[in-house]
Write a structure and sequence with these properties.
377 residues; mainly alpha; 12 helices; elongated
């Protein structure tokens, strides 16, 4: 008996299956390729515009959601770039991580020195105040002195006692204390995050710059690197200039307080120098606090101290800062003042802090890139 595959029926079945498979795998005629879609067509333009607007809105929403992270990151990057010249100078003789450690310890040493100068006088003043507080209260009750006369006219102590008894002032103080506690906790956490990010960025800054430069096309990479290095050097110059103005503010405060006899001149001078690092409001706030401390000496001394800081603030904003920034950042005095005002209006303290380096970068890019392109047209 013959096998099934050798039979005519089996052969015919196999041929039919082969024909079916062949027709299944045979390429079909899918027609000719049409003309490319016109990018100037209204539908293409509308789709591209809609996609661009959606992408821009998405980026803005993401940046707004990440604002609490972006501000410490941007501030840490700015500080790291500003401290990089000092790190590079020290790293000529030591490894970079040692240079970063030295700079970080130097900053911690300045802060520790401020605390060492601040804590003993503060504790002494608190002790003296708590010791004399009962006498102050008795004098107010007897309507003696300036505060006593105020109490006799406006009945301050009795009003406060009524509010304490009713409980309204207690709830207000509790709410205020809770708000102050939240602010202190948030500020402390952001400060710690900024310090940690600054140290990490400062240590990895050469690798970060190499990675960023490699993103540029090879033909334009040397030009991009040269412009970027110039901008970073100007940021470092701004930090150096800011430190110089703060040092001048501290020395001026120390000399003035020695002349008028206000207590704790070294502590207050360090405080004003640190506050002067904050643009726009730093020196004003520091001068106001020093003027309040000068009240312990006398009212005329406090008024003279306030007048001293008003004059110094005017000289710093319109004479000292423009001259120093024109030398360290190579930005004119007019651009310096306008940039600080615009940056402070847009982004507050952070905007005022980065306004001058951004103005220097824009000025450099315009001079080296935009203006030559315009002249070639």
């Amino acid at each position: 008996m013959a096998d099934a595959e050798d039979s005519p029926a089996g052969t015919q079945s196999d041929r039919g299956l082969s024909t079916l498979v062949h027709h299944h795998h045979a390429p079909r005629d899918l027609g000719r390729r049409g003309r490319p879609f016109d990018r100037r067509h209204p539908i293409a333009i509308g789709f591209t515009a809609t996609f661009g607007v959606a992408a821009a809105v998405g980026v803005l929403v993401a940046l707004r959601a990440l604002r609490q992270v972006m501000i410490p990151l941007g501030l840490a990057t700015f500080i790291a770039v500003g401290l990089d010249p000092a790190v590079r100078f020290i790293a000529r003789r030591t490894p970079r991580w040692v240079a970063v450690l030295i700079v970080a310890l130097g900053a911690v040493g300045v802060f520790a020195g401020f605390l060492a100068a601040a804590i003993p006088p503060l504790s002494s003043q608190i002790t003296q105040f708590s010791h004399h507080l009962p006498g102050y209260l008795n004098g107010i009750r007897r309507h003696n002195g300036f505060l006593g006369r105020l109490d006799s006219r406006y009945h301050i102590i009795s009003t406060v006692q009524k509010k304490v008894t009713s409980g309204s002032i207690t709830s207000t103080l509790a709410t205020s204390a809770l708000g102050v506690g939240k602010f202190v906790a948030r500020t402390t956490s952001e400060t710690i995050i900024t310090i940690v990010l600054t140290i990490y960025i400062l240590g990895a800054l050469p690798r970060i710059k190499r990675t960023a430069y490699n993103l540029a096309p090879a033909s334009r990479r040397p030009r991009v690197e040269a412009l970027s290095e110039e901008i970073l050097d100007r940021v470092g110059g701004f930090v150096l200039g800011n430190l110089a103005t703060s040092l001048i503010a501290g020395l001026g405060t120390y000399g003035w307080l020695l002349i008028v006899g206000v207590p704790y001149p070294l502590l207050l001078a360090i405080f004003v120098a640190l506050m002067d690092l904050i643009p726009i409001v730093g020196s004003s706030l520091g001068g106001l606090i020093v003027s309040l401390v000068a009240l312990t000496r006398s009212i005329p001394v406090a008024v003279a101290t306030l007048a001293f800081y008003l004059v110094y603030r005017f000289l710093e904003d319109y004479l000292l800062t423009p001259r120093i920034m024109s030398r360290t950042v190579n930005v004119s005095g007019l651009v310096t003042v306008v940039a600080v005002l615009m940056g402070g209006t847009l982004l507050g303290i952070v905007g005022a802090l980065v306004a001058i380096p951004i103005a220097a970068a824009v000025q450099l890019v315009f001079r080296e890139v935009v203006r030559p392109s315009l002249e070639e047209m």
